[in-house]
Structure formats: C-alpha cells, structure tokens
Specification:
Layout lengths: L2 H7 L1 H6 L8 H13 L4 H25 L1
Helix pairs in contact: 3-4
Length: 67
C-alpha cells in the first residue's frame, strides 16, 4: 500500500477525532487498522472501511447537531 491508500484508510479515524464524544475513536481506529491489514483483499477492506466511516459519520453528525 502506498501513502495515499494508507491516508484514505485512516479517514474514519481522522473523522472520529472531530467528534465531540470520544467513544467513536476506538472503533474507528480498529476499522482503519483492519482496512490496512486487509488491503490485499479489496472486498473485505472496503467493508471494514465502510463500517468505520459509518461510525465516524454518526459521531460527527451528533457533534454538528449540538452546535
């Protein structure tokens, strides 16, 4: 994996850092790690990445909703 792919895989974790609640950080970090580890199997890596982005999006939406 090159740097761009790793940065894209880390996107759920980076989005979760912007959330108000810290509860979403650990699952998003795990999803990002699984995405990098499963990089050789694209279908599984995409599933892990989508789950991480979904968790991060919900956490980010809650932060925006409270503003």
């Amino acid at each position: 994996m090159d740097v761009l792919q790793i940065a894209l895989a880390a996107l759920p974790f980076l989005l979760s850092l912007a959330s108000r609640n810290g509860k979403a950080i650990a699952p998003c970090l795990l999803a990002s790690i699984f995405t990098v580890l499963l990089g050789g199997e694209p279908h599984r890596a995409v599933m892990a990445w989508c789950v991480g982005v979904l968790i991060a999006a919900v956490a980010l939406r809650e932060r925006i909703r409270t503003i």
